[in-house]
Amino acid sequence: MVLIRSRVCGYCMGVERAIKKVYQQLELGSASSLVTLGPLIHNPRTIESLKKLGVKVLDTKVFPSSLEGTTVVIRAHGVAPQVEEEIRQRGGAIVDATCPKVKSSQRKAEQYSRQGYVVFLAGDPGHGEIQGIVGYTPSAILIPSASYARDMVSQWASRWQDRPVVLMGQTTFLLEEYEEIRTILETCFPHLITEHTICLATKERQEALVELCAEVDAVIVVGGKNSANTRRLYELAKEHGKPAWHIEDPEELSPDILKYEKIGITAGASTPMEHIEEVERYITQVLARGKT
């Protein structure tokens, strides 16, 4: 049995930056009043570690009547400007940990909207990043998949044929699907502007996984089950014909994994390197020794 780690895995820049900002606040002694607006990242184990240090998670839908004396960390996914304003009105101090790439998408969406463009936004409608961007361009047309774009493009064309149009996407959206959506829209909107908003780290992570699939017999994807980019890695491995497992903890693995000679390991952008190393140790030191 051979374990082969993907050449791109571990925290992305945006997640690492957000984690760093929280620890900076902890060093300032603000643990008793420090909250994150929703889970800081999509990794339950990391969130639990921060909780033990005193960092609380503020419900994104139910704010307390007062946030006086509270420091609120905006997570890497960002939020709508209306949410930030509400935090300030309730007395909270904001630490903005929005990923710079997401912040750029927010600003571009707002600019295009003000210039009269129809903004097509590819991504998961329930994802925090998309919800935040929509706050900057409330009239955006959400596209969850290429199949949805294919079904709707004729209706969109009949409605907005004379309007300038732009396509933007969730930074963690699957690149291949984003390109397919672009191609579909261009059939009816030949002057479509496409913003390349998918994060380079996401693109590299997906490309590295495709390379990995050519070398291995099976793939393990490590990361939060609620992480969009991690789920897409799992889906991508399956699309390339590989048996795949999406796990948060090593104990989720079955000894059945050992029947494969070459096992690839990758991880989502919100997975720390120590979790990846933990999975590797579990396979070699527990499963391979026949323990349960």
Low-confidence stretches: none
Q: Rg from C-alpha positions?
A: 21 Å
Number of helices: 10
Number of domains: 3
The fraction of residues assigned to DSSP E strands is: 15-25%
Give the integer mean of the pLDDT values. 92
CATH topology of the largest domain: Cobalt-precorrin-4 Transmethylase, domain 1
Can you walk me through this structure?
The chain is α/β, with parallel strands linked by helices and 292 residues long. It has ten helices and twelve strands. Strands 1-12-10-11 form a four-stranded parallel beta sheet, with helices on both faces. Strands 3-2-4-5 form a four-stranded parallel beta sheet, sandwiched between helices. A four-stranded parallel beta sheet has the order 7-6-8-9, sandwiched between helices. α5 links the parallel β6 and β7. α4 packs parallel to α5 and α8 packs parallel to α9. The longest helix has 15 residues. The relative contact order is 0.16. The model has no long low-confidence stretch (mean pLDDT 92).
Walk me through the topology.
Elements lengths: L1 E4 L7 H15 L6 E4 L6 H9 L3 E3 L12 E4 L6 H9 L3 E4 L3 H15 L3 E5 L5 H7 L6 E3 L2 H15 L4 E5 L5 H12 L6 E2 L5 H14 L4 E5 L5 H12 L4 E4 L14 E6 L5 H15 L5
Parallel strand pairs: 1-12, 2-3, 2-4, 4-5, 6-7, 6-8, 8-9, 10-11, 10-12
Helix pairs in contact: 4-5, 6-7, 8-9
List keywords for this structure.
alpha/beta, 12 strands, 10 helices, 292 residues, Rossmann fold, 3 domains, Cobalt-precorrin-4 Transmethylase, domain 1, 17% strand, single chain, flat
